[in-house]
Amino acid sequence: NGGAIVVWKTNTQSILGKFLRSDGTVEPIARVGEESIHSTENYLAPLDVTRNENGGAIVVWGEANIDNTEGEISARFIGSDGIVDPEIEIYNSNNIFFINSTIVSTIDGSNGAIVIWIENYFDIINQRIFAKFLRADGTFSPEPILIQDEEGEISFIDVTTDGSGGAVIIWKDTSSIFGKFLRSDGTLSETFL
């Protein structure tokens, strides 16, 4: 149908969105009876939006409590009609924080997403990369898939679909650029440069 979905984070810890329709009209995206896609008193950190094959989008974000002792990753599906599905908590941990972390996502070819994130264990040296499959029906892979566990500061991460239900994940640490294929069955390739 054309058009775009724009999503952003405000200074008041809310996630807002709008449809920019191909006919030039602009429509707000929000939960029924609300003005936002998500709002919280916690600290909202990373935010990523992935379009899905049905004309909608998947919004994924990280959130940490105020004293930064717990973090979680959540998502919402937005339909092409502007309906915002219930929130899905993908991951929760009291060992990590997301304030300076990164979350990226890509389509899985079946109206779901593959969500990739960096976990910071309260120091820069202990960073790890994880992934989860988020299916179109709102279910997700139960355990995170460990992508990278080498010591070092990760300064960049990106992901793209492989066209077969998996993803290609690229990251940079202080010394080099690396990559891995995450296959649709959850298995990983060897690390490549």
What report would you give on this structure?
The protein is mainly β and 193 residues long. 0% of the residues lie in helices and 50% in strands. The protein has strands at residues 4-9, 14-20, 26-29, 38-39, 43-51, 57-64, 71-78, 88-93, 103-107, 113-120, 127-134, 145-148, 154-161, 167-173, 177-182. Strands 1, 2, 3 and 4 form a 4-stranded antiparallel β-sheet that branches. The protein has a 4-stranded antiparallel β-sheet with strand order 5-6-7-8, with no helix packed on it. A 4-stranded antiparallel β-sheet has the order 9-10-11-12, with no helix packed on it. β5 (43-51) and β6 form a beta hairpin. The mean pLDDT is 85.
List keywords for this structure.
193 residues; mainly beta; 4-stranded antiparallel β-sheet; globular
